[in-house]
Amino acid sequence: MRKEIADLKSLMQSMHKKTTQAQYPDELFPFIEYLRQQELNEELITTIGDELFMHFKEATEINFSQCKMVTKNLLRKRLESLPIGGLSYERKYINVLGPTGVGKTTTIAKMAARAVLEKKKKIGFITTDTYRIAAIEQLKTYAGLLQAPVEIAYNATDFEQAIQRLSHLDLVFIDTAGRNYKEVKYVDDLQRLIKFDDQAESYLVLAMTTKEKDMANIIDQFNQLPIEKFIFTKIDETNSIGTMLNLMIKYNKGLAYYTNGQEVPEDIEEADLEAVLNLFFQGEEK
Ligand SMILES: Nc1nc2c(ncn2[C@@H]2O[C@H](COP(=O)(O)OP(=O)(O)OP(=O)(O)O)[C@@H](O)[C@H]2O)c(=O)[nH]1
Ligand SMILES: [Mg+2]
User: Fold this and answer.
1) Which residue among 70, 110, 137, 256 is least enclosed by CB atoms within 10 Å?
2) Domain count of the chain?
3) What is the DSSP string of 210-248?
């Protein structure tokens, strides 16, 4: 019985969606199609579609740039309460977390280079990635270029000692091992190994090349940790940016940076609301 009610409900919802979409004037369809290509979720697309429909009800013509403006206003309203922007430079420890191969170490190198070159901060690194042999060397290479110390922590005691040794610095970047965080035990391991106190800010790094559903699963697992903001990497490898917005809105989480290439230190942008909205429409200019 309950299942039947649920089925009926979803049928009615999809019928409602179809009927509202059927009401849209034909001129709106290319724009709605753009939103779909960007992989914005259907719920947001319907909200935007309805808003556009109301906006252009009396209009004689509809153009893309007006649609863009209405959409930007709507998305801006959804996003403006979220924290958007880079490191605060107020907390000493920067925890960088995320699944395998998303670009955590590379992004740390980019953020660290900015902290040194632009903000003139004294920085250091701790890596807890003792799992991959090359990981320590990779971080040491970047640290060498910035003449910054690296500490290696195999366990919580090492980590505590590393913190003591680097206590004279302004900022300490903590690189962690990429693991299959669908397994909750890896999140628990992190919690035991590193610190999530009020001296630390934690960032979850996700690659735009990952499927949205899988990213959502990972975020769910990290929900037990105090994640400050997201960092999205590899936006140069995709043409659809919607996922970024979907996840920020769904999880009520801000955005610190997005990265757009392998070059260190240049391929990183500090997030800014207007820039993110423009990024969403960048595909339209191509
Ligand atoms: N195209 C592209 N590649 C990137 C970007 N950021 C990182 N990469 C590449 O992604 C690969 C993995 O980067 P790492 O920084 O080692 O990733 P990681 O998350 O530290 O990996 P693990 O520590 O093994 O989990 C490297 O080849 C990087 O050059 C980006 O913004 N765009
Ligand atoms: Mg790494």
Assistant:
1) 137
2) 2
3) S-HHHHHHHHHHHTTS-EEEEEEE-GGG-S--HHHHHHH
Ligand 2 geometric centre to CA of 39 (Å): 28
Whole-prediction pTM: 0.92
CA of 137 to the centre of ligand 1 (A): 15
Contact residues of ligand 1, CB 6 A cut-off: 100-106, 129, 132, 135, 178, 233-234, 236-237, 259-262, 267
Quote the ligand 2 centre to 100 CA distance (angstroms). Answer: 8
Q: What is the pLDDT of residues 209-226, one digit of tens each?
A: 999 999 999 999 999 999
Task: Determine the 3-state secondary structure of 12 from DSSP.
Answer: helix
**Nearest ligand 1 atom, CA 259:** 31
Q: What is the SS3 assignment for 271?
A: coil
Q: What is the mean pLDDT of the chain?
A: 93
Ligand 1 atom having least distance to the Cα of 129: 23
Is residue 163 within 8 A of residue 194, CB to CB? The reply is no
Is residue 88 one of the residues assigned to a domain?
A: no
Condensed to tens digits (0 to 9), the pLDDT of residues 133-150 reads: 899 999 999 999 999 999
| Structural domain includes residue 37 | yes
Q: What range does the domain containing 32 cover?
A: 2-79
